[in-house]
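user: can you give me the structure for this one chain? tokens are fine.
assistant: on it. calling the predictor now.
[tool input]
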Amino acid sequence: MTPRLSIVIVNFNGGRHLDDCLASLAAHPPAVAHEIVVVDNASTDDSLTAARGRPGVQVIVLPGNSGFSAANNVGIRSTTGPLVLLLNNDTLIGTGALDTLVSKLESDPRAGVAGPRLVDGSGRAELSFGPMISPLAELRQKMVMALHARGVASITRWVESATASERYVDWVSGACLLVRRDVAEAAGLLDERFFLYTEDVDFCASVRARGWRILFTPAAEIVHLRGRSRATVPDAANQAYRRSHLAFYAKHHPRWFPLLRSYLRMKGKER
């Protein structure tokens, strides 16, 4: 059967989280015809052992760690469905979630990308969308996320309220991002300058630049065990984040780039 939905999961030392993700897909598969491909960035753990044994899962092993954007692009190019789901290996899929997300995107001719409501393991909402990154918007987003993580009641209430309404946004999280294949190809796929982090914001900006809208919908809900992949190699992940951060500002806010680079050097965070 020709797949209508291609699910691309990038893995790097995902451990049991990859297996849990694939198990959730097997337990709650989308009704729409689909294919699953795991693109592995040269993992050194045994996370692919279970993946290789799962029926219907294709595994592509890259010769080195090419980064999140590049690995996703390999997955997109190796699949054929007119819809592509980029899915983190630290997510869990519930009954009907992906079919709902597909339905929401396909029923909105203005939307090129759709993202679901993301919640953590305890069901608490994640602020998984936002305005285009700029110095002020980024500061606000980080403050809200930090206060929400600390359990500040007023902020948590605001996040829960904000994530309860369907809306068009500037970007949705790449932890679970559904895109029309023709839209992704027109946008040039993911920019491989972004090794890890901000690639989703940049990709959504490219989609919006071509006249499409980015839809956030709470009708579909996915569990995101945020930070599990980053926890495996925190120092390397932090360095990758800073490189992507600088690349983002160089591309979208070149006037701010020298200031950000100077700030990171002053803090000893740029190598």
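assistant: here you go. Residues 5-228 form a domain with the Spore Coat Polysaccharide Biosynthesis Protein SpsA; Chain A fold (CATH 3.90.550.10). The radius of gyration is 18 Å.
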